[in-house]
Amino acid sequence: xxxGGAPAKVEEPTPHPPKDQLLGISYCITSPPPWPEAILLGxxxxxxxxxxxxxxxxxxxxxxxxxxxxxxxxxxxxxFVAGIxxxxxxxxxxxxxxxxxxxxxxxxxxxxxxxxxxYNNIGDPIRFKRTMRGIQGALIVASTLQIVLGFSGLWRNVxxxxxxxxxxxxxxxxxxxxxELGFPGVAKCIEIGLPELILLVIFSQYIPHAIHSVxxxxxxxxxxxxxxxxxxxxxxxxxxGAYNDSPPRTQATCRxxxxxxxxxxxxxxxxxxFQWGSPSFDAGEAFAMMMAxxxxxxxxxxxxxxxxxxxxxxxxxxxIQSRGIGWQGIGILISGLFGTATGSSVSIENAGLxxxxxxxxxxxxxxxxxFMIFFSILGKFGAVFASIPGxxxxxIYCLLFAYVGSxxxxxxxxxxxxxxxxxxxxxxxxxxxxxxxxxxxxYTAIKGYGPVHTDQRWFNDLVNVPFQSEAxxxxxxxxxxxxxxxxxxxxxxxxxxxxxxxxxRSFKGDSRSEEFYSLPFNLNKYFPSV
Length: 530
Fold this sequence. Notes:
- The structure is a single chain.
- The protein is an all-alpha fold.
- It contains 23 helices and two strands.
- The chain has a two-stranded antiparallel ribbon.
- It is globular.
- The termini are far apart.
- The relative contact order is 0.20.
């Protein structure tokens, strides 16, 4: 040692400190971007939610006995209702920038209604209207579950027992659990899906670091750039005859002119309640749909938590989550009244888009709702965008669902990862959340029906539907274990991260809740949150 001095002190590495608000967001929930940028970002949200709005009716309507005209009208109706529900949620629900769109969770009970014996002897297209009325009746009855649980405050009492540890499997598998909609969809038309996926990664991750720009053009509008380029490329392949001799399934997923939506869509049409006739009601089908509604409620709770993070807001107070679920129930009621063929829940892909763009502004999503309503009324224009090949949407999902899954994992920052209790609950719940639905889905794919198979389809759905949801199974296991295993031990409370969320147990526990979640027009005075 030179000069006989003391040895230099080695600086110990320190872990990253936990943050109850996500840093690095350009525009948070209450800070809107400039209007031109906000309009483009809103249109990008509209593009992203189009995938689900097109794929669900495209799969269900032909089974119901409908043609291209009926398919186009159902897509218009789904877009119109999504616009209304998104505005309701951003204004009066959680007030988070959450898009409320069609949900795959309702597909299984809907197919059971389609296959019901009472529709077998009815010819097309009358069978389509009769089946739609049956779906409407089931949705109307099922919506009461979320409305009651939400507005009565019962769901608030359930969510209060959720800790960061039990929230990790829920939010993570809300995103990662949708893996079947990702690369398998890309592979259906690999020459279109793979370039879309690669371009998305290049525009959103590489170009912004290569070109140091203050305006954040490429990363913020990566979806628009990538979709425009690959859509043009797909159209050139279509008109060039690349798919003329391909199998029908390949043509359906690759061509830009196979949807039949543009010809079937009217120029101007405003969807309205009971447009297919008076709903019909069946008790068994309503119970099955009610179970799907409960699963959607759980998944949407995870969606709200993810969105609050990407909006750079604090954790959503239980009373606000309960209020949001109540308004989502009203959204399912509206879906039943208008006849969308499926229920409504939080759009997970749009939640991921908040992370990709780093813009969590409420105004952007409200503008997106305006685009949904606008293009649903001007049918031909909306049908043009709806003709985007499904492989392009699947590539987008690969990125956006990953963002939602990763934000779920980020809640581990509040937990003690050196605790064996934490390791057990985390690993066991995520493993079963993936393994049990895999068994149910494999069984259904091989046998044509689920593990629970009786003469009553509604009872089968009542049991099979919840166990086909990765997020539902994972949070069920984690929630039960986290609230029963060594709960009285004082150190366990800190291990599970519960002390980080104590201040958000009530609406007035943290001053920031008022800024992010209070109702507009001074409505908190008449509808106070607790």
